């Protein structure tokens, strides 16, 4: 039994099992990104408004600084632009923390290391994820500033685009399949 589990956790598992492990690691990394995003968005860079779906679901009161009607202006920016900027800060902090965790877990359980030295591998991992961060954050910021979409919904669009880009880059360019 332990040999079967050990084989499934190894880099030599079947492609289907590898994808399941990738999805699990991605889920852990995404959960970390979401947790960091919302903690930062609540305590450090308030970017959630009272009408945000997460604020409503948890029956919370959004931080005053994120209220679109608040008279306080950050750097003289309009509230919607400030909310988008703070959401970008939160997403970037979440990106760094979750990506480091994701790299370590992918290297240990999913993809076979060895195509590059670990330093190059880590750089490429962050570079590929950086591309997805830029694309996803652009989508997120555009959704907030152009359409006034809730921060949470714009963040979900960011996460979905990142998942698709990251899988392809990691599978085909960074690790040995």
- The sequence of SSEs as H and E is HHHHHH
The computed structural class is: mainly alpha
Number of domain units: 1
What share of the residues does DSSP label as strand, in percent? under 5%
Uncertain segments of ≥5 residues (pLDDT<50)?
A: none
Helix % is over 70%
Characterization of this structure:
This protein has 177 residues and is mostly helical. The protein has one domain. The protein has helices at residues 2-9, 15-44, 53-57, 79-110, 118-147, 151-174. Helix 2 (15-44) runs antiparallel to helix 4 (79-110), helix 4 runs antiparallel to helix 5 (118-147) and helix 5 packs antiparallel against helix 6 (151-174). 33% of the residues are buried. The mean pLDDT is 82.
Layout of secondary structure:
Layout: H1 2-9, H2 15-44, H3 53-57, H4 79-110, H5 118-147, H6 151-174
Helix pairs in contact: 2-4, 4-5, 5-6
Structural key phrases:
single chain, mainly alpha, 0% strand, 177 residues
Brief overview:
With 177 residues, the protein is mainly alpha-helical. The protein has helices at residues 2-9, 15-44, 53-57, 79-110, 118-147, 151-174. The chain is elongated, with a radius of gyration of 19 Å.
